[in-house]
Amino acid sequence: VQLQASGGGLVQPGGSLRLSCAASGSSSSINVMGWYRQAPGKQRELVAAIVSGGSTSYADSVKGRFTISRDNGKNTVYLQMNSLKPEDTAVYYCNALRRGTSYWGQGTQVTVSS
Questions:
Q1: Which of 13, 10, 15, 4 is nearest to 80 (CA)?
Q2: What is the Cα–Cα distance from 100 to 102, expressed in whole angstroms?
Q3: What is the percentage of the chain residues whose pLDDT exceeds 70?
Q4: How many angstroms separate the Cα of 36 from the Cα of each of 73, 91, 104, 106, 114?
Q5: Residues 21-46: tens digit of each pLDDT
Q6: How many angstroms from the chain centroid is the CA of residue 100?
Q7: Whole-angstrom Cα distance, residue 60 to residue 66?
Q8: What is the 3-state secondary structure (H, E, C) of 12-78?
């Protein structure tokens, strides 16, 4: 499975960004897709995840601001990020779990700054 993430950038506090992650290769039977982030000097943390049936989960810090969605036909997962805060600044990584194996995409930088 190959994961291609896009959509990061620089945004002012309160702004919005949408991240996309497209899965290719042996992308059938992907059970869970999600987004993680890693800020400088911090551990990588789960931001949001969505299972194939549509159930979602979010880190407490992003609930009500971020929305994860998935287009199963396109094997693509999205992360809509609204009301961004400086503390959301991090490298965001796409992840897919397929048959017990975890796959990672390249990171995309999100910087929230005035």
A1: 15
A2: 7
A3: 99
A4: 23, 8, 10, 11, 24
A5: 999 887 678 889 999 999 999 999 99
A6: 19
A7: 10
A8: CCCCCEEEEEEEECCCCCEEEEEEEEECCCCCCEEEEEEECCCCEEECHHHCCCEEEEEECCCCEEE
